[in-house]
Design brief:
By secondary structure, the chain is mainly beta. The chain contains 5 helices and 24 strands. It starts with a strand and ends with a strand. Bound molecules: the ligand Nc1nc2c(c(=O)[nH]1)N[C@H]1C(S)=C(S)[C@@H](COP(=O)(O)O)O[C@H]1N2 and molybdenum atom.
């Protein structure tokens, strides 16, 4: 179970994790597809070294015909090129109080890539799922210790999720071979779910007849209010809008300085519960809201652009906010209503302090 910090200062371990796992600078929100080196990164353990020439992926467990797929086999299968947004479930954790000691994300645990790969479903059909298969388990090559348990990073998906046609095994990112840090040579991409489901460095795919009880599945990635709370599993992304911080920053505090007059505020918004249907902008810390203009996303699972022409009138300090609402009616909370033990799925509205004049 997590330890907590109530201070604004980060521990040496948190800083260490943040240095290993960089986020996307929010000015990267200007790109519909995030340039590879700008995409956020999250690796729990070490980045494994895997030789693509000898790589083979077993598809095993409760199947009629186990498979062993090389990278060439996978590339010879039908290919799809799919833009999809990735977001770490730990986003916003650093803003909580008390704060679970873990990867201390602010708002930058995001990126949107164009993934090339082959759909998982036909592979599972070829292997022939047996009647008692209930979940598909995805195991990564990376190994380490968490909560005193030695493990490979592994997560399962219920059958109906694993069989969604947009769940793919990806070997390219933005038209280039998958980089080592993003899961080379092969990773799972599960659109609409938080990033933990998109297992990198795939070692094995296994059909199982009992729900998977591994640590990353049953203990971590749950919304819990206390240690005793059984909680609910973290699955789809909550609606979220972020803005490119306007104006110019102060080096250390990142306070923004904006000239008086009109300023175009732009950003992107997404949700794992259906398309974003509305983005609102507030110049006064969320007291008043006005509708932003929405653009079209580059794909169904990509983020949606929005913009707002803000008249930065009188000199002074302003707190700019943006808020997304999706087709399911879900929207973003204004405060720490999102607190939970693991610090998952936090989507409180972004607040950007700007000084005009
Ligand atoms: N094998 C493996 N897969 C993994 C992880 C990991 O540590 N090991 N981290 C997960 C988490 S928590 C996230 S948010 C995404 C991050 O993907 P990215 O680093 O390509 O942005 O990968 C997921 N897949
Ligand atoms: Mo994550």
């Amino acid at each position: 179970m997590p330890e907590f910090a109530t201070s604004q200062e980060f521990t040496r371990e948190e800083v260490g994790l943040a240095l290993r796992n960089p986020g996307m600078p929010l000015e990267g929100l200007r790109y519909p597809i995030t340039p590879i080196g700008m995409h956020y990164l999250l690796a729990h353990f070490d980045i494994p070294f895997i030789d693509p020439a000898t790589y083979e992926l077993p598809v095993t467990g409760r199947v009629g015909k186990p498979l062993g797929l090389t990278l060439d086999d996978l590339k010879a299968r039908p290919a799809v090129r799919m833009p999809a947004m990735m977001e770490c479930a730990g986003i916003g954790r650093a803003h909580l109080s008390p704060r679970p000691i873990s990867m201390p994300w602010h708002n930058e645990a995001i990126g949107c890539s164009e993934w090339t790969g082959t759909p998982l479903r036909p592979i599972l059909e070829e292997a022939g799922l047996l009647e008692d298969a209930v979940e598909i388990l995805f195991t990564g090559h990376d190994r380490g210790i968490d909560q005193d348990v030695e493990q490979n990073y592994e997560r399962s998906l219920p059958l109906e999720e694993a069989l969604r046609e947009e769940v793919i095994l990806a070997y390219e990112m933005n038209g280039q071979p998958l980089p080592p840090q993003h899961g080379a040579p092969l990773r799972l991409v599960v659109p609409e779910w938080y990033g933990m489901a998109s297992v990198k460095w795939l070692k094995e795919i296994k059909a199982i007849s009992e729900p998977f009880e591994g640590l990353q599945q049953a203990l971590l990635y749950h919304y819990r209010q206390s240690e005793e709370d059984p909680g609910t599993p973290v699955t789809r992304k909550n609606p979220h809008a972020l803005m490119v911080p306007p104006g110019i920053p102060d080096y250390l505090s990142r306070t923004r300085h904006v000239s008086p007059g009109r300023t175009l505020v732009e950003g992107r918004a997404w949700s794992g519960y259906g398309p974003v249907e509305r983005v609102e902008f507030s110049p006064d810390g969320g007291r008043t809201w006005d509708d932003a203009t929405l653009g079209e996303p580059v794909g169904r699972y990509a983020w949606r652009p929005w913009s707002y022409e803000w008249d930065a009138g009188e000199p002074g300090e302003y707190e700019l906010c943006a808020r997304a609402t999706d087709a399911s009616g879900r929207t973003q909370p204004a405060d720490d209503g999102a607190w939970n033990q693991g610090g998952y799925g936090v989507n409180v509205v972004q607040r950007v302090t700007v000084v005009v004049g």
